Amino acid sequence: MIPVGLSLVPDVVFLDLLHDVIRDEADYYELAPETLWFRSSSGALEPNGFHRTFRELVDATRKPVVAHGVGFSVGGASEADAARRTSWLERIRLDHEVFHFGWYTDHVGVSALGGLATTLPLATPMTDAAVMRTRGALEALQRIVPDVGVENSVFYFHLGDPLDEPAFLGRVVAGPRCHLLLDLHNVYTTALNAGFDPHAYLARLPLDAVIEIHLSGGRDSPAAWGGRSMRLDSHDTAVPEPVWALFDEVWPRCPNLRGVTLERMEDTVTVPDVAVIRAELRRAREALRR
To answer: How far are the Cα atoms of 142, 150, 154, 160, 220 from residue 224, in angstroms, in the given order?
Structure first.
C-alpha cells in the first residue's frame, strides 16, 4: 500500500489543532528543513525550536520522514549561490543524521540569486546548461541523501513553452536515483494561468520517474491586482475537485510512486479545517486502495 503523508509546518496553531490528525492519520511526515534553522551571529545555520519539536514528534511516533525544500536553488549558478549551497549541504547532512530522510526534493528553478532569496522559485530557460546546473545540484544532494528529485513548480512567467517543461524535467531526472515530485495543484494552477490542458502536460511527463505526489489547494487572486484573476498556489484551502480528478487519473500510471503528501501552509488552519484535512488524508488513502 502506498503511504499517505502530511507536510509539517513551523506553526504552533497548526500543530495544536492537528495534534491527533498528525499522529493518527499520517503514515509519514514531510519537512522543509530550512524552516527549522536560523542563522546565528557567527553566520552558522543552527536548529531552531521547531527542529526540536519535530525531532520529538518523530521519536515518539516512529514514523518515516521525507524532506522537501524550497530554497536550495537547484538552478542557481553564481559564486554566491555556490557558497550558500555549501553551508546548506552541511546543515542538511546534520539533519539527515537526525531525521533519516527517505528522499530529498526541491522545486525546479532558481530560489536564490546572488546569494539573496527570491521567496518564490523563478523559472530558468529550459536549456542544456540549465539541465546540467540542476543535475549538478542534485548530485551534491545525493552525497548526503541518496534519493533526490525536483518538483514541478508554479511559475507566473515562463522562459519558453510551458508544455515543453515535462521534457525538460525528464532530462533533469534522467540520472540514477533521481526522481520527480509531481505536484498536481501546481499542474492545475499553471494550466489555468498559462491556458493549456493539464492532461496534455501529464501525458508528456516521465511518470515512471515520479516518487511522490503532492495534493494541495489554493485560491484565485483578486482581479484588482492587475485586471485579471490568477490562480495562486497558496496551500490555504481544501484540495479542489479538479485536482482530485487529476490524482485519480495519474497515480495508477506512476509505477515507482512511494508516497502521496497533503500540504497546508502555516496560518491557514482553523478549527473547521481539522475535519477537512482528516477527510482529505482518508480520501487519498481510499483512492490508493482502489
So the answer is: 44, 33, 21, 27, 11
Contact status, residue 149 vs residue 138, Cβ threshold 8 Å: yes
In the chain, which ranges are continuous DSSP H helix?
12-17, 19-24, 49-61, 79-99, 128-142, 165-172, 184-194, 198-204, 241-250, 271-289
Q: Which CATH architecture has domain 4-289?
A: Alpha-Beta Barrel (3.20)
264: Cβ–Cβ under 8 A, 6 or more apart, which residues? 7, 9, 14, 216, 235, 236, 273, 277
pLDDT tens, residue by residue, 12-55: 999 999 999 999 999 999 999 999 999 999 889 999 999 999 99
Integer Cα distance of 66 and 5 in angstroms: 9
**Cell numbers 552558522: residue:** 44
Pairwise CA distance, residues 262 & 5, whole Å: 6
**Cα torsion angle, 226, 228, 233, 239, sign:** positive
Tens of pLDDT, residues 41-91: 988 999 999 999 999 999 999 999 999 998 888 988 666 667 778 889 999
Q: Compute CA 281 distance to the chain's CA centroid, rounded to the nearest angstrom.
A: 17
Per-residue DSSP letter, 221: P
Q: What pTM value is reported for the model? A: 0.96
Contact present, 71 and 34 (Cβ < 8 Å): yes
Share of the chain above pLDDT 90, in %: 80
3-state helix, strand, coil in the chain (%, to 5): 45, 20, 35
Angle at 72 between CA 247 and CA 101, to 5 degrees: 65
Residue extents of the structural domains in the chain: 4-289
